[in-house]
Amino acid sequence: MRIKSKYLWILGLLPGSTATTFAQEQAEQVASVAPIAYNKMVMTERDIMVGAEGFQLPGTLTLPLSASAENKVPCIVLVHGSGPNDRDETVGPNKPFRDLAWLLAEEGIATIRYDKRTLVYGARYIPEGREADYDVEAVDDAVATIAQAMSIPEVDANRIYLLGHSLGGTLAPRIAQQSGKLAGLILWAGAARPLEDLLIEQVEYINSLSPSKEAEAQIDVLKRQAANVKKLGNYGYDESLPLLMNLPRSYWEFANRYKPLDVIATLKWPVLVMQGERDYQVTMTDFNLWQMALMFNAKAAYRCYPALNHLFMEGEGKATPQEYNQPGRVPAYVAKDIVKFICQE
């Protein structure tokens, strides 16, 4: 099968945010990667409902067939990156969370994955009396899901882990802090730096692949907005300048206050930091920052993979947005490293 399409790379985070678009032509590619197969001989899945009060989110519980009330197994709650993600974290033809869930089930570990609140509820995702921020977008539902996982008969309540991808990895320390009930954390390409810095780095990288004067002009505007966001509530903030990505003020104020490196440095849980070296959205700079923050945590472990991109799928050369439109799969060795981490605890 051959694929040829125009891929529009959109940096959009929440309902109502302004998307900055960089259009690039995708080269003709051959889809040769076989998808991970669901093996009913070793696993089973059932629909569940999770989420914070007032926000029921449909999800999937994936269990190894060996799991039972008498033989409880570890469970990993999967937390998405930014944007209105579905439970599989579907990007084009790729489903990294589904891949990971099936790989882990084959290794005897359960997972919970669920549709994100911003996907299920759209513009109605903010509870009455609250404002848009990281907690409303992701943290509240993850904390609730961890608590709900503890009541599942086949799950070992003392061996529940959190895996956060991208923004989910950034928020993993806060989720752990709010929950207090985890056995450990897994950061899957978690951003350690401020959101506005990553946005600028991403758009500059994308434009470097196929430079255009129009994109450069857009980037200049974004840079001014990013610099202004850092001044929120302080001298020099320009009220007349639109907020970056058109996200609400409450969102940026919360993002400015939250310091993931400071939070994770206070946690005593085991932590596994995983990073693809070809990832241009969250880079080895972030990976190194997590290591520095965790330098006094004897239970921290680190894995980086030269061939993997942001979706933890293999490729060659410079990663590009078009790569996400090419079918891939999460390699088995990624799941095996997670299993090794869990089984050592």
Count the beta strands: 12
Order of neighbouring strands in the sheet with most strands: 5-6-8-7-9-10-11-12
- The residue-averaged pLDDT reads 90
Shape: globular
How much strand content do the residues show? 15-25%
CATH class: Alpha Beta
Query: How many domains in all?
Result: 1
Shape-level CATH architecture: 3-Layer(aba) Sandwich
CATH topology type: Rossmann fold
Write the element-wise H/E pattern from the N-terminal end onward.
EEEEEEEHEHHEHEHHHHEHEH
Radius of gyration equals: 20 Å
Compute the separation of the termini in Å.
Answer: 44 Å
What percentage of residues falls in helices of 4 or more residues? 25-40%
CATH superfamily: Alpha/Beta hydrolase fold, catalytic domain
Total of DSSP H or I helical runs spanning 4+ residues: 10
Structural class by secondary-structure content:
alpha/beta
Q: Any low-confidence stretches, pLDDT <50, length ≥5? A: 1-31
* Biggest sheet details: 8 strands, mixed
